[in-house]
Amino acid sequence: KFQQKTLESLIDNRYNIILKSRQLGISTLTAGHSLWLMLFHKDKNILVIATTQDVAKNLVTKVREMHDNLPSWLKGKALEDNKLSLRFGNGSQIKAVSSMAHAGRSEALSLLIIDEAAFVDRIDDIWASSQQTLATGGGAIILSTPNGIGNFFHKTWIKAEEGSEGWNPIRLHWSMHPDRDQTWRDEQDELLGIKMAAQECDCDFISSGRGVVEGELLQWYEETYIQDPVEKRGVDGNLWVWEHPDYSRDYVVVADVARGDGADNSAFHVMDVESATQVAEYRGKIGTKESGNMLVKIA
């Protein structure tokens, strides 16, 4: 039933993000959805991106095997058929590529599939580069098990749960599988270890990943201390101030300056020396000269 409901969501929503447990058949379901798009619609262009080309190729292989097992009257005429792509005579095709920053920058896409998105390097750049190709009405399916917090997949999932930016969240917990019970789940702790089992089975962002600081501590800190700034300054509004200057106190400015070509953010923090409290922060894409001037001014 959860697979049927997922399939209906893929059809009804343009952007779908799937937070899933392992071995629920969702990659196979996505392959079936892709093949349906290709056979029953003209000129559908589907791109599959994964951590490596081999992983992306696996989904194309599933599509090919499904097509091979269809009755002859339902099959499409294959004009191109290799390990990385399949193209039919009606103009529809599917391709597999590895995770490069420019991977999504190609001809107009009907569907972008990013498999194991939480583990894909530079996925922010990939998503940004794909926006122009999806602008003509294409959709996206981003699926993954969790891999810690703060990455693109986690942030996109949070936005989807909040109902922003048009994302449809689909959460598939291990307990949805009809053949799994608590005994099976307990065995996963033994086989995978507690941390990996939380990642692979529980859809647990906090307990998954390999962060330097434990996710539980970060969550506690966020719930306890995070607050909105009292003022946002600067031409881009990215200078956030939590406390106005007290000239009887000492502060330290700590900066990390980017190259200034717009590919990365420059940032700085202002800390109250005595209380070790953060009182201001900047994060934005500006030139090195502008960054230097801002640091002198803030100091």
Give a description of the structure.
There is one protein chain. The protein contains 9 helices and 13 strands. It is α/β, with parallel strands linked by helices and 299 residues long. The strands form 2 sheets. It has an 8-stranded mixed beta sheet, sandwiched between helices. A 5-stranded antiparallel beta sheet has the order 9-10-13-12-11, covered by helices on one side. Helix 1 packs across helix 2, helix 2 packs across helix 3 and helix 6 (182-192) crosses helix 7 (194-201). The protein is globular, with a radius of gyration of 23 Å. The mean pLDDT is 88.
Low-confidence stretches: none
As a percent range, the share of helical residues equals: 25-40%
Strand percentage: 15-25%
Gross morphology:
globular
Largest beta sheet: strand ordering: 3-4-5-2-6-7-1-8
Note the total helix count.
Answer: 9
- What is the SS-derived class? alpha/beta
Give the distance, in angstroms, between the N- and C-terminal Cα atoms: 60 Å
Query: What is the typical, i.e. mean, pLDDT?
Result: 88
- Describe the oligomeric state of these chains in a short phrase: single chain
Give helix and strand order, one letter per element, not per position: HEHEHEEEEHEHEHHHEEEEEH
Radius of gyration: 23 Å
The major sheet is characterized as:
8 strands, mixed
Q: Give the strand tally.
A: 13
